[in-house]
# Entry
Amino acid sequence: MGSSAAAARALRLSARCARTLPAVQAGTELRHRASADRRNLSVQAAAEAGKLKSIDDLPGPSLPTTLYWLFVKGYADKSHLLQGVQRSLYGPIWRSRFGPFDIVNVASPELIAQVIQQEGRYPSRAELPHWKEYRELRGQAYGLHVDTGPEWYRIRRALNPKMLKLREVSAYAPIIHQVIGDLLRRIEVLRSLSQDQVTVSDLASELHKFGFEGISSILFETRLGCLQEDIPPDTLRFIAAVNEMLTLSETVVLFPRWSRGVLPFWRRFVQAWDDLYDVARSLVDRRIAEIQAQVCSGEPAEGMYLTYLLSSDRLSRAEVYISLTELLLGGVDTTSNTLSWALYHLARDRGVQDRLYGEVSAVCPDRREPITEDLSRMPYLKAVIKETLRLYPVVPGNGRFVSEDAVVVGNYWFPKKTQFHLCHYATCHDEDQFVDAEVFAPKRWLRAEAPGSVCGRAAPGFYRHHPYSFLPFGVGVRACVGKRVAEMEMFFALSRLMQHYEVRPEPGAPVVEPKTRTLLIPSKPINLRFLPRA
Ligand code: HEM
# Structure
């Protein structure tokens, strides 16, 4: 264990030495520091003058109250709902303490904006001591989620260009369409095997395979065949490991280090991470071998994401492994759950589905595959995805660990190293921000439409929600690196599914509520009927 941790440290040190910040950047950093110091002095002065309250003045539940809510009232897997309950009890900012956590919850867009504005140059979501411990145990690089400060930023800058630039991401359209073609064939097979010849059961699990195939075809430039009849064992292993790791991550962090050998959680957590990492590493290695073979035979080594990352030479091999593991981890459940919820609502709302179908067939007649340029003429398609993410933000609560400076939020002063929890689920479901907040109404996102009613109720101010009340991909330099890829996958998949099928719920299908397992996921299987369009 000691030697692998030392290897990781050596790797990080050598990376640091090789990439000393250029003078210009250092200058900017000094200026940034100076202005932060000035702000800090005025914050400190205000606090000392007694104008500001302190963290100890915040309202919030005691430990027994929290335990009561979680385990007696049953909010343990519905922590997204607890945000709204606690906001109504304590107001838009409150403190909760639980095990090793001491958290300041923020549940109004104005206060969330204040936290983000003070997040500093290298924002951090949360300290993940148990993820760090695992990486040190295995001698791996830290990667995006664990690394902090300039080290995080260096990795992020290497990953951004082929993920966040629209022009670059458009190059992935053909491969995404190929994968969607496989999804359509898979749906045909599943329908034909079902009792009534139209139902696809547990849609979310099928869309997980689609999500895995989609993102890995971009990242690893390899088709894995996740949507074929015989699903590759590594795909199943990865999907199971994501579930296990995310579930255990919430538990492991509560227990002290000495319990690692006594309780079963840590061992299972390590095994889940091993599976995630091994799958990603073997995909990277497979592609590297292909590239080497291409180069040896004089062929140009062309590719998409991984080829670019390797050839840019900005990350060490260990950093490439962990970055690809993290991109894969971020890119499967997020898009697949969002698509599941979108289809779930479209099936229940014929009006919305007809309108979406009308838009898709007007822009892409005769089932023409949409191209990136078509998307600017599909505002309703975008509105459907936005509305889905508003009702079901996959990341229902985000974090900011403000480590560099003291900050002021509301009229409270917080010392540095305060952990903030940004309650996005609560703000997305806030009636003050979104009229008829619990109703699936994509048209609320269409600015061109005259303000009217969502469900028969007049709604002046309809569109005027605060921009920080809806941040499904986060915000600022730390925002989701896969946003553009995710949107493209979801826009194309949904429009092609609409071209081919009308979706309907099973007769007597139950209402499916979301539950929290770090991410917001369906609490029961979603089964839908896929009726072929004429
Ligand atoms: C519906 C789809 C998705 C949603 C709603 C989503 C949402 C988010 C959110 C809220 C964050 C935190 C941002 C912040 O702290 O401000 C995040 C981070 C991240 N996402 Fe996504 N995501 C999605 C798809 C993807 C995809 C497809 C990928 C991979 C290609 C991905 C990879 C990541 C990574 C690696 C991070 C960490 C970035 C960092 O810490 O620098 N996500 N995502």
